[in-house]
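Homework help board

Subject: predicted structure for assignment chain

Our instructor gave us this sequence and asked us to write out the predicted structure in C-alpha cell form, then describe one feature. I got the C-alpha cells but I'm not sure how to describe them. Can anyone check?
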Amino acid sequence: MTNPATGAQLAEVPDSGATEAQAAIEAASAALPGWAATPAPQRAMVLRRVAAMMLEQQERLATIMTLEQGKPLAEARGEIAYAASFFSWFAGEAERIYGQTIPATVANKRLLLLRQAVGVVALITPWNFPSAMLARKLAAALAAGCTTVCKPAEQTPLSALELGKIVEQAGAPAGVVNIVTCRDPQPFADTIFTDPRVRKVSFTGSTEVGKILIRRSAETVKRVSLELGGNAPFIIFDDADLDAAIAGAISSKFRNAGQTCVCANRIFVQRGIYAQFAERFAAQVRNLRVGNGLEPGVQIGPLIDRAAHDKVQQHVAEASAQGAQIIVGGGAAIPDSLFWTPTVLTDVTAEMLVAREETFGPVAPLIPFEHEADALRMANATDYGLAAYFYTRDVSRVFRVAEGLEYGIIGANDALPSTAQAPFGGVKQSGIGREGGPQGIDEYLDVKYVSLGV
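My C-alpha cell output:
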C-alpha cells in the first residue's frame, strides 16, 4: 500500500483470502458465547478503555491515517476523536439493553421480551473514514455482545489494524475482533455470505455493491445494514445568514477533499443571492491550501487513487463542455499527482454529471433556483437520500423544508450534523438501517419473546 500524497510505499499487510476469512469466522464463533455472556457493565468498561486509549494515542493514530488516506492532519485528529466518541456512547448503550414485560390476557401467564446479541457479524468499511466508520460499527456490535470479522478497505488497512490492537489491549478477549486485510474482496465476501454462523453484515460503500450484498444475503437470510451512496443537496435561501452559509458550504463540500458520503454534492442557491454567493464563495475557495496532509496549514489533501482523480476530471470536463463556467480551479493542482485544485462551477444544470452523480472530489457545482418548491423538487430528484442541508432564518421554512426533503439526515443551518448520539443513515437507495444513537445498537440485537406459564 502507498501514500496517496507521495506515491511512496508505506507498509505491507497480508493479502488474505478465503482461508483467512474462514479462520476469522472460526475465532469469532468460538469467542461468541463468552463475550455475549459477559455482563454489560464489563463490556462497557472495555469500550470506555478503548475510547480513552484512542484519545491518548490521538496524534500517532492521526498520523497513520494521514499517511495512508491523505486527509490533512487536523482532520485526521478530529476523526480519531469522533471515532472514540462511538466507544464512549455505546459503552452507555451496553448498560441500557433493557427487556420488556407485556401485560398478559390471562392470569396464569407472564409475557417477556429479551434482547440478545445477533451473533457473529461481518463489518465492511470504506477508505474515506478508516477509523470512524469501523468504530461506528464495531462499538455497537461489541456493546451488544456480538463478535466480529472486520474487512477494512484495501487502500486503508493500517488504521483498522491499529484500532484492533487497541481493542485487544483494552481487554477484549481473543477472537472478539478479527481483522482480515485483502486486495481482492471477493473471496472474503464469498466466505462470509455462505457461512451460516455469520448472522449479520454491515457495509458502508457504494450503492452498486450494496445491491449485490442484499442479493447475497438471501443465501443464508442474513441481516444487513447498509450505508450507501449519496447526492447531498445544499440549499441556500435568500433569507439565510450568508456568512454562515458560505462557511457551512465550504466545510461540507471540501472536508476530506470532498471525499465524504454526506458532503454537499449539489449547491442550490436562490436566484436573488446567487451572484453574490458565487463571488464570495469562490473567493474563499480560491484560498484553500492544497498539499501533503502532514504539512502545516494544508486544507485539501490528495484524492485517494487515480480512478478517483479521473472521475473528478471527467465530471469537470463534461460540465464545462455543456456550458458550465469554471470560476475557480478546474484542473490538477500538481501535474502527475492525485491532487486536484478546489473547483467552483456556475451555470450548472441538473443534466450534468456533477449534478446527477456523486463526484467524490473537491468540486462545487452551483445551481440557481427561484422558489422553495423548486429547491425541494430539484433536491429530491435523485435515487439517493442520505444527507441534505439548507440555510434559512425563517422558522416556518425550517419545518417545511426539513419535512419535505427525502433524506435520512438533515442539517438545518448546520453543515456538520453527524454525532455519536444521533442516528446516521439514509432512505431510498442510500441504505438500510441506522448507525449511532439509541437506534444503532438495535441493529446488533435480536428480540426474543418468552411466554411463561405460572
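Reply (TA_rk): Your C-alpha cells look well-formed. For the description, you could write something like this. The mean pLDDT is 97. That's the kind of observation they're looking for.
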